[in-house]
Amino acid sequence: MRFWINAGFLEADQLIPIARAAERLGYAGITLPDHLFLPERYESRYPYSADGTITWQPEAPWPDCWVAIGAMAAATERLRFGTSVYIGPLRNTLAVAKAVGTCAALAPNRVMCGLGAGWMREEFDIVGQDFETRGKRLDEMIATLPALWSGDVVDADGDHVAFPALRMRPPAGRVPILVGGNTKPALRRAAQADGWIAAFTGLDELEVMLEEFDACRERYGRADQSREVLVTATPSIVKHRGRLGEIGVDGVVIPAVMLSESFATVDLVSGLERYAEGWP
What we know:
With 280 residues, the protein is α/β, with parallel strands linked by helices. The chain is 37% helix and 18% strand.
């Protein structure tokens, strides 16, 4: 079982110290969550809380994922980086490909791209992207990104992602695409991509979803291809690490802010150290 850290809600100047500490302690990688902004007023329900309200403070920082990942990658040597998850349909596919591909070129074989459809309608409205078609646009984005990262000449003629023949450089090499979310559409997308990022809601439910995920992979002819499954969870999930491995989970992603009562960098690092001591 590999342990990742989610560095969400940390100040920008804390990211490099946390990344260096995570690498020193043997964590597998760091992920970042994504929002462009938080509207002052919104009616959309957050899907991962019982009452539909957000679970972070409105003043929480949201640094750009790929700028931050580039900085952390330059300050480390082994650690992997990714997003959990990046709201792809908020952006143009070419812009996403450029940002992710540049990070991957700077840190070969250390970058994964975790994508999600998004849940906040107001965020889409403000940037002028259609909320209703976000799933279809994400499907076309996922299908197109690997070709753009190849560095070869590529074109696209989809309903939502379309561009003439072009070449994007530098080539990124292989960038695994993982899809986040516990919904059936998310599982379907994940099965066609390189893996799945789940939100932990219990072992039994997770096992059922994993069975559905693997069944989808078989239907799409991908059963014999490598895949990666990460589960975002609270620190207590460590007690289930044996069972998680048995049902096909490769790693868990723990929020750094849940490992310390203080947001001070020194306390966050101490929290990472204490948690690492509890691994097998």
